[in-house]
Amino acid sequence: xxxxxxxxxxxxxxxxxxxxxxxxxxxxxxxxxxxxxxxxxxxxxxxxxxxxxxxxxxxxxxxxxxxxxxxxxxxxxxxxxxxxxxxxxxxxxxxxxxxxxxxxxxxxxxxxxxxxxxxxxxxxxxxxxxxxxxxxxxxxxxxxxxxxxxxxxxxxxxxxxxxxxxxxx
Length: 169
Ligand code: S3P
Known about the structure:
five-stranded parallel β-sheet; binds shikimate-3-phosphate; Rossmann fold; alpha/beta; 10 helices
């Protein structure tokens, strides 16, 4: 097996499975797993939804950037799942592409819509925006996510197949 010497950064829209997949990849490669949402939640002692409600999105984005840049500055490679909006930030995108192995987990809008109801309770952006607005956000982000050097189209793959594809690449 090839040695993994860069942090694997999983990128993509909310609900594509970055956390679930990231944990499995980390286990298979014997690497530490981190999730940017979780790191922010632990730092503040509130859930992402509570942070948006109490402090606002700008506050959340500042901490999100700090946590991600801190992970990427560590010598030890790890698997890092990014929150769906993180890769939109130019600095985060640059550092993740330069210092990490950024992988875009791509899902079609049709497939994503099937998951939307399950995601809504924990995703503040889905509560604040209409379906049309979310669709616009989804489309606008594709072009930025696509800057990751690797893209895996997840629509017809099982979680195990996606984990395997990440290990094989
Ligand atoms: C967000 C995605 C969420 C979380 C926050 C904002 C976004 O993470 O960071 O609700 O802007 O797309 P997941 O991608 O893990 O759902």
